[in-house]
Amino acid sequence: MRCDRVWSKARLATLAVDRPGLGVVEDGVVAALDGRILYAGPAADAPAFEAGETVDCEGRWITPGLIDPHTHLVHGGDRAHEFELRLAGASYEEIARAGGGIVSTMKATRAASQDQLVASALPRLDALIAEGLTTIEVKSGYGLSLDDELKSLRAARALGQARQVSVTATFLGAHALPPEYAGDADGYIDHVCYQMIPAVAAEGLADAVDAFCEGIGFSAAQTRRVFEAAREHGLPVKLHAEQLSNLHGAALAAEFGALSADHLEHLDAAGIAAMAQAGTTAVLLPGAFYFVRETKLPPIQALRAAGVPLALATDCNPGTSPLTSLLLTLNMAATLFRMTVDECLAGVTREAARAIGRLDEVGTLEAGKACDLAIWDIERPAQLVYRMGFNPLHARVWKGLS
After folding, report:
1. What integer pLDDT is reported at residue 102 of this predicted model?
2. What is the pLDDT of residue 96?
3. Exposure of 239 by Cβ count < 10 A (0-12 exposed, 13-18 middle, 19+ buried)?
4. How far apart are the C-alpha atoms of 241 and 258, rounded to whole Å?
5. Amino acid 27: pLDDT
6. Mean pLDDT of the chain
């Protein structure tokens, strides 16, 4: 059988949907043709390949390329000063209500050109790529005006041209209330629904629509309007939900068949049941939990018991999770949330792909999918979760290319 490249003498964690646990293959082979996996499985069952190149993995582990399903990678400036304020005792809500938080980043983002936004995001992206990332979700949400949101989404798309990485872009216009709409949240939601979403859809700049359903964000009723506008324009939805309080956003997201509901520290039983029924993925963000010193854990065991898929993400953003390491995210999820090794690794591969609506394309080592691989110098998969500040990546492959 003809193929472009074969990786042999490897141990595979296929993460295949129909296999238990990590889908481990001890003596495995991966073959690629035209950037897609032709075969991934036991060497004993592999057909005879006529390969342009054969790579001897010398017993190394191969996992699917890592996926970060929730980031705010594109933004201007940083918020190190607010970090100092929090160290001095100020809360996230207090800083936001005093004009800091998202609105602070909005000012820096509006002042930056598209090229400047791309240039500032690339070091953050490069840090993730260096740990085996092959697919990333990037949200807008710091422009908060039509032109600046479009600029941010174009910058997100441009990242996928500047690096060998797959980018899914999410429109997050309903992230915070900009100053020009002070006291008129419904008026701003009108702008999001009637001007922003149609323009974003017309240019094909977003793969999904998100919102921040929270006391310092937008109400459930306002979020519903955003979701209705997204549905009218054929865009799937996801939601920042139940991070600081329970506004029943996760249940609302599930009502609209959302790809994911994210954060979820204050999620209740009704929200869990709704997510389970709708097939909505829970995206857990231990970096934000750690950084804002949250004490209320997301209901991991209840989500697990209900069969809700669990994904993990960095939530890379300037205010509450300036994190650019999926490997550290794995350790945080295990240590803070008590997730298992299998859950952690699935959370940044198979379930992360599910959370961005791309499980048919990436996230597992299965024939027909993009040949996105991470090859590791490890003795067992647990080492990817156990170590802190250590990167055992040997090689990264994106669409068959390394």
Report:
1. 85
2. 76
3. buried
4. 12
5. 97
6. 97
Pairing state between β 281-284 and 260-263: parallel
Model confidence pLDDT, tens digit, residues 142-160: 999 999 999 999 999 999 9
Question: In terms of DSSP bridges, do strands 61-64 and 373-376 run parallel, antiparallel, or are they unpaired?
Answer: antiparallel
3-state secondary structure the chain: CEEEEEEEEEEEECCCCCCCCCCEEEEEEEEEECCEEEEEEEHHHCCCCEEEEEEECCCCEEEECEEECCCCCCCCCCCHHHHHHHHCCCCHHHHHHCCCCHHHHHHHHHHCCHHHHHHHHHHHHHHHHCCCEEEEEEECCCCCCHHHHHHHHHHHHHHHHHCCCEEEEEEEEECCCCHHHCCCHHHHHHHHHHHHHHHHHHHCCCCEEEEEECCCCECHHHHHHHHHHHHHCCCCEEEEECCCCCCCHHHHHHHCCCCEEEECCCCCHHHHHHHHHHCCEEEECHHHHHHCCCCCCCCHHHHHHHCCCEEECCCCECCCECCCCHHHHHHHHHHHHCCCHHHHHHHCCHHHHHHCCCCCCCCCCCCCCECCEEEECCCCCHHHHHCCCCCCEEEEEECCEC
The answer, yes or no, to whether residue 283 has pLDDT greater than 90, is yes
What is the rounded distance in angstroms from the CA atom of residue 284 to the CA atom of residue 311?
6
Distances (CA, A) of 303 to 125, 189, 260, 271, 386: 30, 31, 13, 10, 23
b/e map 153-179, b = 16+ CB within 10 Å: bbbbbbbbeebebbbbbbbbbbbbbbe
pLDDT band at 192 (very low <50, low <70, confident <90, very high): very high
**Residue 279 buriedness (CB in 10 A; 0-12 / 13-18 / 19+):** middle
